[in-house]
Structure formats: structure tokens, C-alpha cells
Design brief:
This protein is 24% helix and 29% strand. By secondary structure, the protein is of the alpha+beta class. It has one domain: M1 Pyruvate Kinase, Domain 3, CATH 2.40.33. The strands form 3 sheets. It has a 7-stranded mixed barrel. Strands 6-5-12 form a 3-stranded antiparallel beta sheet, with no helix packed on it. The protein has a two-stranded antiparallel ribbon with strand order 2-3. Helix 1 links the parallel strand 7 and strand 8. Helix 5 packs antiparallel against helix 6. The longest helix is centred in the last third of the chain and has 11 residues.
């Protein structure tokens, strides 16, 4: 069991003209100074479209650095773009992937305690970021989407610190399994009902699980 990783990069982004004439905060860049983290996310990081992004259940996006090599091999001409921040993430580290993390996990970095709330459902902005149609489909198909943390205990973090597992209340629903269930419908009605009962599951995904359990 992986219970500790070193965070390679902490990233924030400002709202700016992105694609299709729309503004977005998708373009996130690494910072090397301490960053304050509150219940809405990292101070200095913005969420332009609050209908679909941000909020306590999606305060901080973690993306496994392990996946960058996969994408570089799959799409070699875009390899230089598959680096920290490429998928709009706030945190990145090697050695921790979706099948090793479970909904409800508490992870501590610096003075901050995060709780795993849901997987990430990518949108068209991933394709726009890489100027390539089909990347979003591959993210969903392969399950390489990362996950969202909510913030249980605000505080301060800085790149290079360790993030360690504090508590794991269940070991049935990994982020990989939850994301496959919600985005690809890979679950039975009974399994969806079980998923919907997870106390830590984000409200939006809980409602989707409940609909599929009926």
C-alpha cells in the first residue's frame, strides 16, 4: 500500500482567454512558494466557470505524474505538453494513481488535510489544451483522469513536501472503480446503491449513483 508520496508540483492558474472565445483557468503553472489552501481551493487559483468547476467538493485537482509518459508515448508529437499542469491540475506526484486511492481517504500535506471526494470528469478544454480532438475520450476510456480533493483542514502547502495517508475508511471503492462506474456505467444497480452510500462521495456523483441504482 502506498501511504506517502512527495508532491512534485503545486500549480495555480488565472482566468484568461483560452479557446472558442471563452475564458478559463485551465492553464495552471507551478509555483515554488508556500500556498495557502482553504475550503474552496488554493489561494491565487481561480475557477472561471463556477457552474462546472470549483466548489468544496472539487477544491483541488490531483493528477498522477505517472501518466505523463503514457500520454507522451500515445501522442509523441505532443510529448512536450504532457508535463505538470498539462491537465489543469493543482497537485502532481509520482507513485500514486487512481487504483491506489479511495473515496474518503484523508491525505495530509503540510498543515492541510485533504479528503478524496470524486474522480475527475474531463471536458472539451482538455482537447483544446492540446489542440487535438479525442484526448478527452482517451482520458475517460483509460481512467487516467486524476481526482478531486475537498479540504478538511485548511493550511499551507509547498511543492516538495510529502503527502501522507492519514485515514482510509473504506477499501472497496477506489477512484478508478468509482470513475469507471460514473463515467462508463461499469456497475450494477446494487453496486451503484452501495456507491451512493459512501459518506465522502461528492454530492453530484452521489446523485448520479442514486439515479443508476433505481
Amino acid at each position: 500500500m502506498i501511504d506517502r508520496v512527495a508532491i512534485d508540483a503545486v500549480m495555480i492558474g488565472e482566468s484568461k482567454l483560452f479557446a472558442r472565445g471563452e475564458y478559463s483557468s485551465f492553464d495552471k503553472r507551478p509555483v515554488d512558494y508556500p500556498v495557502t489552501v482553504g475550503v474552496e481551493g488554493l489561494v491565487g487559483d481561480t475557477q472561471t466557470d463556477r457552474r462546472y468547476h470549483g466548489g468544496p467538493d472539487k477544491a483541488v485537482h490531483f493528477y498522477p505524474a505517472d501518466h505523463y509518459a503514457f500520454w507522451a508515448d500515445l501522442i509523441p508529437d505532443l510529448a512536450p505538453k504532457f508535463v505538470a499542469g498539462g491537465f489543469g491540475e493543482n497537485l502532481s506526484a509520482s507513485g500514486l494513481t487512481e487504483d491506489q486511492v479511495f473515496v474518503g481517504d484523508h491525505w495530509q500535506m503540510g498543515s492541510v488535510i485533504f479528503e478524496v471526494a470524486q474522480g475527475r470528469q474531463p471536458c472539451w478544454k482538455v482537447d483544446a489544451r492540446f489542440n487535438r480532438d479525442g484526448v478527452v475520450r482517451q482520458v475517460v476510456k483509460t481512467g487516467r483522469s486524476g481526482w478531486y480533493f475537498r479540504v478538511i483542514q485548511p493550511g499551507v502547502i509547498v511543492a516538495g513536501e510529502n503527502m501522507r495517508l492519514v485515514v482510509r475508511p473504506q477499501q472497496t471503492w477506489s477512484v478508478a472503480r468509482v470513475t469507471a462506474a460514473i463515467l462508463l456505467k461499469r456497475a450494477t444497480p446494487a453496486e451503484f446503491a452501495d456507491l451512493a452510500r459512501l459518506p465522502a462521495l461528492a454530492q453530484g456523483w452521489r446523485e448520479r449513483a442514486e439515479r443508476n441504482a433505481a
